[in-house]
Amino acid sequence: MARVLIVYHTLSGNTEKMAQAFAEGAKSVQGTEVVIKKAFEATLEDLLACDAVAFGSADYFSYIAGALKDFFDRTYYPSQGKVAGKPYAAFATGGGGGETALAVLDRLCSSFKFRKAAEGVAAVMSPSSEALAKCKEAGKKLASVAVA
Predict the structure, then answer these.
(1) Please, which residues bridge with residue 16 across strands?
(2) Main-chain dihedrals φ then ψ at residue 41, nearest 5 degrees
(3) Is there a contact between 32 and 4 (Cβ–Cβ < 8 Å)?
(4) Whether 55 contacts 83, CB under 8 Å
(5) Which of these, 94, 102, 104, lies nearest to 121 by C-alpha position?
(6) Distance CA 109, CA 142 (A)
(7) What pLDDT does residue 35 have?
(8) What is the structure's pLDDT at 48?
(9) Over the stretch 133-144, which tens digit does the pLDDT of each residue have?
C-alpha cells in the first residue's frame, strides 16, 4: 500500500479545499492510503513513512505560510539522505493567484531533493471547480507515481 502524505496550512479554508481535492484524487488510485495533516501537526515520522507528499499553502507576503515553513525547518536536517527522490506535488492559493507560493514550494522541495511528480496547482482566493479538478488530477498522478 502506497502512502500519500498531504501537508498544508490554511486560515480561510481555501487551501484546505484544495487539500481535500488532492486527497480525493489520490484515493482514486487503487492501493493508496492518504494521510492529511495540517502543517503544525505533521511530523518527521509522517514524512519518512510516506511514499509521496503534497504541500499546500496560501501566499502570504509573497511566501508560504509560516506553519508550512516550520514543517520544512523541523524536518530538513533529520530527513537528509532519507527522502531524496520522493515524489511531490504542490498547490497554493492567494489573492495574486498563488504562483509565488508555488515557486517557493518548488524551491524548498528541491532543497530536500524531492522529485516533482505533477505540476503545481494555483488558485485565486477560493478555488474554482476547475482548480479543484486540477487538484484531483494532480493527486491522482502523485498517487500513481507512488504506487508504481
Answers:
(1) none
(2) -90, -20
(3) yes
(4) no
(5) 102
(6) 15
(7) 98
(8) 98
(9) 999 999 999 999
The predicted-structure confidence for 15-64, as pLDDT tens digits, reads as follows 999 999 999 999 999 999 999 999 999 999 999 999 999 999 999 999 99
The tens digit of pLDDT for each residue in 79-122 reads 999 999 999 999 999 988 889 999 999 999 999 999 999 999 99
- Kindly give, in sequence order, each residue whose CB lies less than 8 Å from that of residue 83, ignoring residues fewer than 6 positions away: 47, 48, 112, 113, 114
User: 13 CB contacts (<8 Å, ≥6 apart)?
Assistant: none
CA dist 55 to 14, 141, Å?
14, 14
Q: Give yes or no for a contact between 56 and 6, defined as CB atoms under 8 angstroms apart.
A: yes
| Cα distance between residue 43 and residue 60, in whole Å | 23
Helix or strand holding residue 50 (H, E): none
Q: Which three cell numbers stand for residue 26?
A: 489520490
- Residue among 107, 122, 33, 119 at smallest CA distance from 69: 107
Give the position of cell 524548498: 108
